[in-house]
TrEMBL record, chain A:
Mode of membrane association: Multi-pass membrane protein
Main location: endoplasmic reticulum
Cellular compartment(s): Endoplasmic reticulum membrane
Annotated keywords: Endoplasmic reticulum, ER-Golgi transport, Membrane, Protein transport, Receptor, Signal, Transmembrane, Transmembrane helix, Transport
Transmembrane segments: 55-78, 98-115, 121-140, 152-170, 182-202
Keyword Transmembrane helix: yes
InterPro entries cross-referenced by the UniProt entry: ER_ret_rcpt
Single annotated GO MF: ER retention sequence binding
Protein name, as recorded: ER lumen protein-retaining receptor
Organism: Jatropha curcas
Amino acid sequence: MNIFRLAGDMTHLASVLVLLLKIHTIKSCAGISLKTQELYALVFATRYLDIFTDFISLYNTTMKLIFLGSSFSIVWYIRNHKIVSRSYDKSQDTFRHYFLIIPCLLLALLVNEKFTFKEVMWAFSIYLEAVAILPQLVLLQRTRNIDNLTGQYVFLLGAYRALYILNWIYRYFTETHYVHWITWVSGLVQTLLYADFFYYYFESWKNNKKLQLPA
Amino acid sequence: KEENEVHDEL
């Protein structure tokens, strides 16, 4: 464990907590893409298949349970909670996220660390996470006024993977044979997808005006 | 198990 990875995990945890705060306290999911939440639930479900077979540390297992529990409960809230589901605008959240799942699955079958079910599922989760934010970014472009919590949620979610890139650089230089092209390339693509969001997020923060993404 | 077989990152 290094400071970059711990900061990354804490940033990721913070993004989940901000989203849960928004949904649980103001009972609203306005501006939140259910499709991105469903993709993330699938990412964690396919990545943490080893949660009961490979014990790494209490920290690792605890965080996995938190990410699994929060992602599925957020999906449940938006789909089934009588008040929250009313603030979900189905007509705006139109990204065909199933078109993301198939290519990621095919790629995982071709490019993986070992051709076993768990490893293919793990690679699938890495590729899927790289593109999981797309429905959310498309929705943000359509959302006229993005509320602060939604903006912070997306920012933290993008920042966590950027911190992981620093973690991979650190581990490359401090650990022998630490090379993981699958996570490195996917993590870089994932972070680059946030590039224009980060730009507009900092602009709105610097000029102290409402966050607005150009359509 | 070798180190790189178990994914130690979240």
